[in-house]
């Protein structure tokens, strides 16, 4: 882990706080960081002895993005030809699941390095990874590998420990492999092991574990759903999963259980402020009310939903109803990019295309990507820029012609989208991007590792 630095960020062009409405902008302030926290935000701060001064006169400052739904292992499965034009079910069956057992912890490590490098250089500082490469008799150490790579990069990391349980034969991906799902005892004992080794419950945790069977409707029998949620709550862990990603998903739930997916999970104790679901694309108004009443959150993944033709989640309606909204890039095998700036840009645009020009404000999209993420992950001391908060902040350099001419440069990284240049990024006062580069990252070596990994997965595929 890198050392903390005491830092003075001087003269930024603008500061976005991650908060909503009139609190979205901090005005012309400098920021002082000491012992991992923001200790002052005020104009004209004077450097102190031993403090590193960062000239931010070409930069805007944001809280680091909080990515609440990723599958880092998919960084070695971008643009797999047989899945490029498939919907979710066809894509699951042709891209990730046939290769599930072929991912060694070493390949997961390489994929995670690619993903974390891309996240950091897009302005993300926290990643929640939904890792589901588990099966009966398989090596479970890939979860540990993810924590180790997060340590290398200095990212805040939440492992959402996924997987499927006995009788998961209806899962559209799993059922087409020769693999057997885990038993509940095996999954529980690994979650307990991970919790004991890594989990921190404090609101500025660097490491968290979440209980996250891959999907409630397909990955485990209904009888075990409440057992899993009770076990997670007894351990003080949050719950995460996929829900209502496609219209097929809703149809399956109606036909099999005679109810809507959100009603189904409600019956099995899977709603609450300690639960968030990825996607939630197809929702009835009654389901939005149920999510809002229970404080259940969403990881909105607009790029993956577009790429797989799944639809557009009714996120402005959810936000208006009071559902906690966050953003996730989803796996890059159904996105082809793991950039949070790209995701926030798309979240800003897509609802305007569908619902009109005032459907999503830039400030609201920034809130979803920062404070919204902190809320669903229960990390109350990150996601906003304020005195006392952990120093997770990003400086975007506007010194490129594409950022010249802005009347409101504060929102430029979101409304102009990519490419952006992250000049500096801090996680808990540790510099994780320094003058545009990730310290210690050997890009040529990473490129060679990625090439070797892809070659290995392709060769095995054709065996
Ligand atoms: Zn996903």
Q: What is the β-strand count?
A: 17
Bound molecules: zinc ion
Which architecture of the largest domain would the CATH scheme give at its second level? Alpha-Beta Barrel
Strand content: 15-25%
Helix content: 25-40%
CATH superfamily heading of the largest domain: Metal-dependent hydrolases
Low-confidence stretches: none
Largest sheet, if any?
8 strands, parallel
CATH class category of the largest domain:
Alpha Beta
Number of helices: 14
The coarse overall form would be globular
Gyration radius over CA: 21 Å
GO molecular function, one term: hydrolase activity, acting on carbon-nitrogen (but not peptide) bonds
Keywords: Hydrolase
Protein name: Amidohydrolase
Organism: Crenobacter luteus
List keywords for this structure.
eight-stranded parallel β-sheet, five-stranded mixed β-sheet, alpha/beta, 463 residues, TIM Barrel, 18% strand, Urease, subunit C, domain 1, 35% helix, binds zinc ion
Task: Please give a quick description of this structure.
By secondary structure, the protein is α/β, with parallel strands linked by helices. Helix content is 35%, strand content 18%. The chain has two domains: 7-63 and 381-434, Urease, subunit C, domain 1 (Roll), CATH 2.30.40; 65-377, Metal-dependent hydrolases (TIM Barrel).
């Amino acid at each position: 882990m890198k050392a903390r630095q005491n830092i003075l960020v001087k003269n930024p062009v603008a500061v976005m706080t991650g908060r909503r409405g009139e609190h979205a902008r901090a005005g012309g302030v400098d920021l002082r960081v000491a012992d991992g926290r923001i200790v002052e935000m005020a104009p004209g701060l004077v450097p102190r002895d031993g403090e590193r001064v960062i000239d931010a006169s070409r930069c805007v400052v944001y809280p680091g993005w909080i990515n609440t739904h990723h599958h880092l292992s998919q960084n070695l499965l971008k643009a797999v030809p047989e899945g490029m034009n498939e919907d979710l079910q066809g894509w699951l069956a042709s891209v990730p699941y046939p290769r599930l057992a072929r991912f060694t912890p070493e390949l997961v490590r390489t994929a995670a390095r690619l993903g974390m490098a891309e996240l950091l250089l897009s302005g993300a500082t926290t990643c929640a990874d939904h890792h589901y490469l588990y099966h009966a008799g398989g090596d479970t150490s890939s979860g540990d590998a993810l924590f180790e790579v997060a340590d290398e990069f200095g990212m805040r990391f939440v492992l959402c420990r996924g997987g499927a349980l006995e009788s998961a034969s209806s899962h559209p991906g799993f059922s087409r492999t020769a693999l057997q799902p885990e038993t509940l005892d095996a999954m529980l004992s690994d979650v307990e092991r991970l919790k004991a080794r890594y989990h921190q419950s404090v609101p500025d945790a660097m490491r968290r574990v979440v209980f996250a069977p891959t999907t409630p409707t397909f990955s485990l029998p209904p009888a075990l759903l409440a057992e899993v949620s009770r076990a997670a709550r007894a351990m003080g862990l949050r719950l995460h999963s996929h829900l209502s990603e496609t219209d097929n998903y809703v149809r399956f739930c109606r036909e099999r259980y005679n109810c809507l997916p959100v009603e189904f999970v409600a019956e099995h104790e899977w709603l609450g402020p300690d639960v968030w679901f990825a996607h939630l694309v197809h929702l009835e108004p009654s389901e939005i009310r149920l999510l809002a009443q229970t404080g259940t959150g969403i990881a909105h993944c607009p790029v993956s939903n577009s790429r797989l033709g799944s639809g557009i989640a009714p996120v402005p309606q959810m936000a208006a109803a009071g559902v906690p909204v966050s953003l996730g890039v989803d796996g890059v095998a159904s996105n082809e990019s793991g950039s949070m700036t790209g995701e926030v840009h798309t979240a800003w645009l897509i609802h305007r295309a569908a619902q009109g020009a005032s459907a999503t404000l830039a400030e609201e999209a920034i809130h979803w990507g920062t404070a919204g993420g902190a809320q669903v992950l229960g990390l109350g001391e990150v996601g906003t820029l304020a005195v006392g908060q952990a120093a997770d902040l990003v400086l975007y350099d506007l010194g490129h012609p594409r950022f010249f001419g802005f009347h409101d440069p504060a929102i430029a990284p979101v409304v102009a989208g990519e490419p952006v240049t992250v000049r500096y990024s801090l996680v808990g006062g540790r510099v994780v991007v320094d003058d545009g580069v990730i310290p210690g990252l050997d890009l040529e070596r990473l490129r060679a590792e990625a090439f070797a990994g892809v070659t290995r997965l392709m060769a095995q595929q054709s065996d």
